[in-house]
Predict the structure of LITAF domain-containing protein.
Amino acid sequence: MCPSCNMSITTRVEHQAGTMTLILCFFVSIFVLCCDFTKDVNHFCPICQRRLGTYRRPCSSRITFIILIYLIILIIYIILLAMSDSHHYNG
């Protein structure tokens, strides 16, 4: 039931990039912008077009932990790569 027009409706949804989407895009891949499951969801009345609510995807501690592990592995890999390049003898 829409509180604005008092009609019995099924909401129209629109997906919008939120905090979780941007974090995943920056640390994982730009392709998460194509996936709706990472985006926030806005609900609208299809009759009066009023926004009825927003579901914001939680940026859970599990996702934060995975991103942190990914960054640590990436930094270790870059350090090891730099160390192996500096120990080559070209004489």
